[in-house]
Amino acid sequence: MTDRLSPDLDEQAREILRGNDRGGYTVPTDGLYPYQWNWDSAFAAWGFSTFDIDRAWTELETLFSGQWEDGMVPHIVFHKDDPGYFPGPEVWGSGRTPPTSGISQPPVAAILARLIWARDPEAGRDRIAALYPKLLAWHRWWKRDRCGSGVAAVTHPWESGRDNCPDWDIGMAKVDGSNVGEYQRRDTGHVDASMRPRKEDYDRYLAILFFGRDCGWDQREIIRNGPFLMEDPGITFILLRAHEDLAAIGRELGHDVSELEGWAAELRAGVPQLWNPQVQGYDARDLRGDGFAGRVGSAAFLAYLADAATPALDKRMDEIWNRVSYGFPSADPAAEGFDPRRYWRGPSWPVVNSLIALGLQERGHAEAAERLRRETAEVIKKHGFFEYFDPIDGTPCGGDAFTWTAAIWLTWAG
Ligand code: 2M8
Questions:
Q1: Per-residue pLDDT tens for 124-138?
Q2: Could you say which of 58, 66, 321, 370 is the most buried, measured as most Cβ atoms within 10 Å of its Cβ?
Q3: Distance of CA 11 to the CA centre of its chain
Q4: Which of these is catalytic: 40, 286, 332, 387?
Q5: ipTM over 0.95
Q6: DSSP H/E element including 185
Q7: Could you tell me if residue 335 is inside a domain?
């Protein structure tokens, strides 16, 4: 697809967003991901806001058309059936219209909605006012159904958005994937299998999915007895920032935001429990018994976004980042489990880089923020709008003409 695009990169990025538009929502990339994904869509909206503010708001509105009555915003909304993706709507069995998955994804929507609103306060006022109660209900869901231990936990690696990163290895090791039966993956028909999660990961992803489906997505049961439950520094920092941004939005709209302020304060008080002195960084924790994961990946550095960084974290950032050349690696190259091209086990992800850089910039690390922008821009200029990149040699990986890479080009990297 890249060959047919305009020679101007800004225009190429806009063409990718328009090309991945399926009418009110954007797919992450053609073929590999034919549905609406939660955090991809929030980034898409941010990208659209640079040239079509109305379309930006529509993207978020369509995403919230999949919201559940308990406030959860699912990680996939299956607007139109497509046999090119597995597991599709019939596997998730949500029993809803539109059909959806049964788990959520990183709550970046309020953070990006605030930035979108700032681009055109007039045009956005009614749109954000209508979205506000829906965002609030979703944040309440996070608080009630995921933050019981003091920080945010995920019930499935897919809920974290960082699917197969080494953070989840200890939790995944306890999941029995031996009884999921035969199934046909579709992802490896679209992209190089060596850049995707392995079969043993997929067996376990399905086992966790089946547990949720078989109990009718009963959140209490999933939290109490589900096969996987781990605290996630990534979602914790994103949610903390998102609570604060939603409170700012609410204040501007004249709402009482004390509830949101309370959730943010509680979450902030929980952050120190994620600090693992052994690895000198924020670390995932297994709530099914095994303690810290012992890994410092890109999620730890989302702490800047939530104003939760420490001098020790600054030091850790330099160490890890200096082991690579093209943006922040999703896993530490010096740690066990690192794989520079296998999805979330090491590659540099432009979207995550954009969030880390936003935090760095705000916290007075302008030079580091600029370095992250420069390194991310360099691989995009050289190779195109790929899903992710090898952080050591810049090799493009995964899907091409990728929506969120195009979006962060327009808003930040370009
Ligand atoms: C990836 O995840 C999906 C499952 O949700 C998959 O591999 O099938 C992740 O990178 C996730 O963060 C992302 O939202 C999704 C679509 O880009 O792809």
A1: 999 999 999 999 999
A2: 66
A3: 25
A4: 387
A5: yes
A6: none
A7: no
Domain that holds residue 188: 2-294
What's 65's domain CATH number? 1.50.10.10
**CA 250 to each of CA 73, 111, 242: distance values in angstroms, whole numbers, following the listed order:** 19, 13, 12
**Predicted confidence band of residue 4 (pLDDT cuts 50, 70, 90):** low
Best probe residue, ligand 1, of 33, 40, 92 (max atoms within 8 Å of C-beta):
33
Q: Does residue 158's CB lie within 6 angstroms of at least one atom of ligand 1?
A: yes
Give the CA radius of gyration of the chain: 20
- 325: burial class by Cβ within 10 Å (0-12, 13-18, 19+)? middle
CA 271 to ligand 1 centroid distance, Å: 26
Tens-digit pLDDT profile for residues 343-389: 999 999 999 999 999 999 999 999 999 999 999 999 999 999 999 99
Among this protein's residues, is 387 annotated catalytic? yes
Which two structure tokens, joined as six digits, stand for 46?
């941010």
Neighbours of 200 (CB within 10 A): 12
Domain contains 113:
yes
* Residue 397 counted as domain residue: no
Q: In the prediction, which pLDDT does 2 show?
A: 45
Q: How far apart are CA 172 and CA 174, in angstroms?
A: 5
54 included as an active-site residue:
no
Instruction: Evaluate whether residue 383 is within a structural domain.
Output: no
Mean pLDDT of the residues in the chain? 97
Provide mean pLDDT across the span 45-54: 98
Domain count, the chain: 1
